[in-house]
């Protein structure tokens, strides 16, 4: 029955043309008529389009008449394209039997593509390599074909070469999907097991779960059970994306579609959870489930205290569609009421920050990101600390363990030295190297996550002029000599400026932070002293001298109105700053630690 | 530009008459200020016409202060005699600096010698009240450089001195030179030192009566403060005439068209002429009273004057603000009765920190 179904996804690096290729396939199969074409259908959020990445996975059903004359149901499962969303990618892959590996003919394979490719191979997927952008003058498809061939052990000549932009050879891609991707196995008469690989929130239908039916069938009248959360539900609607939601009333083994669950939050509907029926449940859930765990933490505060409830509403709304965003109320002496938020990674954090500012029009202060430390107390208790302000007194701590990561960087060989230097400066250590293609090297390192989240990626890009790509996975927690680096402004410690750093770096970081803060904090009515201290010792100090002259020289009849506007502007600037004690601190100061650079 | 002058003067006369018609209080005019741009470009004959229409339209007091802004590059003895005969009794001369290098940087057409000649011509024409404008805080200027100009002005002993710290305005060539990193703006501490230096050196012969203005101590008969500018700082009304002029009349702050063609069109269009601008409500007027009045260093804002104008006590109107400013040492009471509020020396250096509190709504 499911012989005509092909479930596949696309693995590609950002900007290698995944969305354009998907659009071409949708048009070619008549799923979307050209006149309805909204550019890049799979990326629905503006922000995603701007950043050139897909944040939420989607699934689209296409009908394709192959050269054998038969009609096939092709389900394209989109995967998020960023390193922060590794688990989501992993679950999307588990819903497929095949994957298109898209490689840019001008760039070659990138680290993240490679990482996802290995995930796909692990998941037993059939890989169809495709070289894209052959229309570009700088394309070097032969070289890239050799690179892929040596990687996958396939014949370089057999690799499809396309231009998603002008439509060249897209039909071949569809044809190869039909020929090479295995039809799903699975028995629709067995008890139901279905995998949730994504979800979104719909204001009418509640949480819509994206599912792949592995065994059995789902009908709109069944009572369904989510095995991890143990929630039971009556679906409001069952259907497929073609590409908009279209009710079908039934999904059978091998099929991909959606269930409108009626659940109120996506956190009740975990990616990777298994759905079965209440009347005839299976005992074992599908393998691979993991509860999403935030890796990066930061405080988000409204600039104006009045905006607290707006910020809360905005976070609630964002969380509706993003189960990986976690937050809880937090109070800072410096910044008052706000939220401690947890993110999958720095990129995820940036997206949330931008959405709060742009979509919800909020003025926010985001504090420097932190990782979660495991703190072993002298009394034997282990505490998880995601905020420097919460680090217990040194005397009570037996040991601090910090998360370490495995990272892979693929780069042209000429940047080998500068990358080694960058990683070493960040306490990283070299693990191995590999040459996937001539003049390209894959370097593997181990590095503390804390070093990775402070502008590592920007620094990597700037050192390699954008050529290096990065992927990372959690490795382990290691006991390290960590200390709390405190910043004192006018002799009182400012909680929102504290950080947890390695003892060996405390002196250097403290000095640079003080220098940076001295630049950022404007002169005020009184001298302001800034100090960095760690281990109860002052490391560095500086003084922002008091204002000496700030007065409009001219104020006559001809310009009173204009001068008043200038004063109002100055007043607004002052109001945007945060009052900490008697000192006005501009918002940028709270992110200063991110901009220390690597000197 | 010259070809516009006759048409422009005609429009200016028109405007004078029409504004005067609106003035139902028939105000007595006690100062006239010819300024903005380079009024000394017009010939005395043309000025005669203008002053005649002003005198015809309004009641101008016989002892009125009639000032003219003059660019040293445009001065001739004959012209000055002509102006003086028409009643101009005060000249404000834009000398800017007594160092040619600085005049060059400022893009001025005159030289130091030219300034001295201009001063001589003005005095010889019988105009006895002269103000000299100087600028300090130029990029690259040292305190020694500044002292050269200060000494020169003290030797000349003009009746009035205005000293302005250079502000780099957006959109000017200087601003782009600063943005491009070609010119380094002066350090705040150096500019402060220059200001303090001027205050100190002028103190023995001049009264520092406004943030940027000094009047020579009088002979006991006449007060040499600029009456016209006092009108602004005391938050009183004034009529602005001509292209780009600003006025504060019948409770409205208004601005005339900025270009001559637009101005000519507006003044020649028939129908109801009215002053258009923004009405100053009582709250804003009270704030203006503070931020303008505090510029007057020894007078400040008087409690009884404020009450007369607004019917309320300023401490009630500005709730905790005044107390906070007193506490931070930026303003102080003149006496134990708290009869007037003035800037402290520190407040004078940091005036914006005070004025800001009275600008815009909270």
Write a structural description:
Chain A is an alpha+beta fold. Chain A is built from 13 helices and 33 strands. The longest helix of chain A has 18 residues, at 503-520. In chain A, 47% of the residues are buried. In chain B, the strands form three sheets. Chain B has a seven-stranded mixed beta sheet. A three-stranded antiparallel beta sheet of chain B has the order 8-9-10, with no helix packed on it. Chain B is an alpha/beta fold and 362 residues long. In chain B, α6 links the parallel β4 and β5 (160-165). Chain B contains 16 helices and 13 strands. Chain B is 43% helix and 19% strand. Chain B has two domains: 28-231, Transcription Regulator spoIIAA (2-Layer Sandwich), CATH 3.30.750; 285-357, Winged helix-like DNA-binding domain superfamily/Winged helix DNA-binding domain (Arc Repressor Mutant, subunit A), CATH 1.10.10.10. Chain B has helices spanning 5-22, 44-57, 77-86, 100-105, 112-124, 143-156, 173-179, 188-202, 227-233, 260-268, 282-293, 303-310, 314-317, 321-327, 345-349, 351-355, and strands spanning 28-34, 59-70, 90-96, 129-136, 160-165, 206-210, 213-216, 246-249, 252-255, 277-279, 301-302, 331-333, 340-343. The A-B interface holds A 523, 525, 545, 547-561, 564, 567-568, 570-571, 574 and B 36, 163-165, 167, 188-189, 191-192, 195, 211-212, 229, 231-233, 238, 240, 244-248, 253, 255, 278, 288, 291-292, 295, 328, 330, 348-353, 355-357, 359-360.
């Amino acid at each position: 029955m499911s012989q005509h179904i092909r479930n596949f996804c696309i693995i590609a690096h950002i900007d290698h043309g995944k969305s354009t290729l998907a659009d071409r396939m949708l048009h070619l199969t008549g799923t979307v008529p050209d006149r309805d074409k909204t550019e890049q259908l799979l990326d629905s959020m503006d922000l995603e389009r701007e950043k050139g990445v897909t944040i939420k996975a989607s699934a689209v059903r296409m009908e394709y008449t192959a050269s054998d004359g038969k009609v096939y149901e092709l389900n394209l499962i989109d995967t998020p394209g960023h390193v922060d969303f590794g688990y989501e990618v992993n679950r999307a892959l588990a819903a497929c039997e095949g994957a298109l590996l898209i490689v840019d003919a001008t760039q070659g394979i990138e680290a993240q593509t490679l990482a996802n490719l290995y995930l796909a191979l692990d998941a037993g997927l059939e890989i169809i390599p495709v070289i894209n952008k052959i229309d570009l003058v700088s394309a070097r498809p032969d070289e890239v074909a050799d690179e892929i061939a040596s990687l996958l052990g396939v014949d370089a000549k057999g690799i499809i070469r396309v231009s998603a932009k002008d439509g060249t050879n897209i039909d071949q891609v569809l044809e190869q999907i039909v020929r090479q991707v295995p039809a799903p196995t699975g028995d629709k008469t067995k008890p139901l097991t279905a995998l949730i690989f994504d979800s979104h929130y719909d204001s009418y239908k509640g949480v819509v779960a994206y599912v792949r039916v592995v065994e059995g069938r789902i009908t709109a009248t069944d009572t369904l059970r989510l095995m991890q959360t143990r929630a039971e539900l009556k679906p409001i609607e069952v259907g497929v994306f073609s590409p908009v939601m279209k009710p079908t009333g039934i999904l059978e083994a091998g099929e991909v579609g959606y269930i409108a669950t009626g659940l109120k939050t996506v956190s009740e509907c975990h990616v990777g959870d298994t759905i079965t029926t209440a009347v005839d449940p299976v005992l074992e859930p599908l393998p691979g489930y993991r509860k999403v765990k935030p890796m990066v933490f930061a405080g988000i505060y409204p600039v104006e205290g009045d905006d607290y409830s707006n910020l809360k509403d905005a976070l609630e709304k964002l969380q509706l569609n993003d189960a990986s965003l976690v937050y809880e109320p937090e109070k800072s002496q410096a910044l008052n009421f706000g939220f401690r938020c947890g993110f999958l990674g720095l990129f995820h954090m940036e997206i949330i920050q931008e959405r709060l500012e742009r979509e919800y029009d909020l003025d926010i202060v985001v504090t420097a990101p932190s990782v979660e430390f495991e703190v072993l107390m002298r009394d034997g208790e282990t505490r998880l600390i995601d905020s420097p302000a919460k680090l217990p007194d040194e005397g009570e701590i037996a040991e601090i363990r910090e998360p370490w990561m495995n990272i892979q960087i693929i780069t042209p060989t000429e940047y080998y030295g500068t990358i080694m230097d960058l990683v070493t400066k960040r306490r990283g250590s070299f693990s191995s190297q590999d040459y996937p293609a001539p003049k390209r090297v894959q370097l593997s390192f181990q590095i503390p996550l804390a070093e990775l989240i402070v502008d590592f990626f920007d620094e990597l890009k700037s050192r390699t002029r954008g050529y290096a790509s990065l992927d990372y996975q959690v490795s382990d927690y290691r006991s390290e000599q960590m200390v709390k680096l405190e910043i004192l402004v006018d002799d009182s410690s400012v909680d929102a400026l504290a950080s947890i750093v390695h003892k060996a770096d405390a002196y250097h970081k403290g000095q640079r932070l003080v220098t940076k803060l001295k630049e950022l904090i404007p002169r005020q009515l009184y001298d302001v002293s800034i100090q960095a201290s760690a281990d109860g010792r002052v490391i560095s100090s500086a003084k922002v001298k008091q204002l000496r002259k700030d007065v409009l020289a001219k104020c006559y009849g001809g310009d009173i109105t204009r001068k008043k506007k200038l004063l109002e502007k100055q007043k607004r600037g002052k109001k945007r700053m945060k009052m900490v004690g008697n000192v006005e601190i501009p918002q940028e100061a709270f992110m200063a630690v991110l901009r220390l650079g690597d000197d | 530009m010259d070809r516009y002058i006759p048409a422009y003067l005609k429009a200016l006369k028109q405007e004078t008459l029409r504004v005067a018609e609106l003035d139902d209080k028939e105000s007595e005019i006690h100062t006239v200020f010819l300024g903005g741009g380079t009024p000394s470009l017009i010939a005395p004959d043309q000025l005669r016409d203008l002053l005649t229409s002003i005198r015809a339209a309004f009641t101008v007091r016989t002892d009125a202060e009639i000032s003219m802004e003059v660019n040293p590059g445009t001065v001739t003895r004959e012209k000055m005699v002509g102006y003086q005969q028409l009643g101009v009794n005060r000249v404000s001369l834009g000398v800017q600096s007594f160092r040619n290098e600085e005049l060059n940087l400022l893009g001025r057409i005159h030289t130091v010698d030219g300034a001295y000649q201009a001063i001589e011509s003005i005095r010889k024409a019988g105009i006895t009240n002269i103000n000299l404008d100087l600028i300090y805080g130029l990029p690259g200027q040292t305190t020694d450089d500044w002292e050269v100009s200060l000494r020169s002005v003290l030797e000349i002993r003009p009746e009035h001195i205005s000293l302005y710290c250079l502000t780099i305005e957006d959109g000017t060539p200087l601003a782009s030179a600063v943005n491009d990193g070609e010119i380094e703006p002066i350090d705040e501490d150096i500019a402060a030192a220059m200001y303090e230096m001027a205050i100190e050196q002028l103190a023995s012969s001049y009264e520092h009566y406004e943030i940027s203005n000094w009047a020579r101590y009088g002979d006991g008969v006449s007060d040499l403060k600029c009456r016209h500018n006092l009108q602004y700082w005391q938050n009183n009304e004034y009529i602005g005439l001509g292209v780009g002029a600003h006025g504060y009349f019948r409770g409205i702050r208004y601005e005339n068209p900025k270009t001559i063609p637009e101005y000519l069109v507006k003044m020649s269009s028939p129908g109801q002429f009215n002053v258009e601008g923004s009405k100053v409500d009582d709250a804003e007027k009270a704030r203006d009273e503070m931020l303008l009045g505090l510029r007057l260093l020894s007078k400040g804002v008087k409690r009884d004057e404020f009450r007369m104008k607004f019917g309320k006590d300023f401490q009630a109107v500005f709730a905790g603000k005044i107390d906070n400013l007193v506490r931070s040492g930026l303003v102080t009471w003149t006496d134990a009765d708290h009869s007037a509020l003035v800037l402290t020396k520190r407040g004078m250096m940091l005036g914006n920190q005070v004025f800001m509190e009275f600008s815009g709504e909270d």
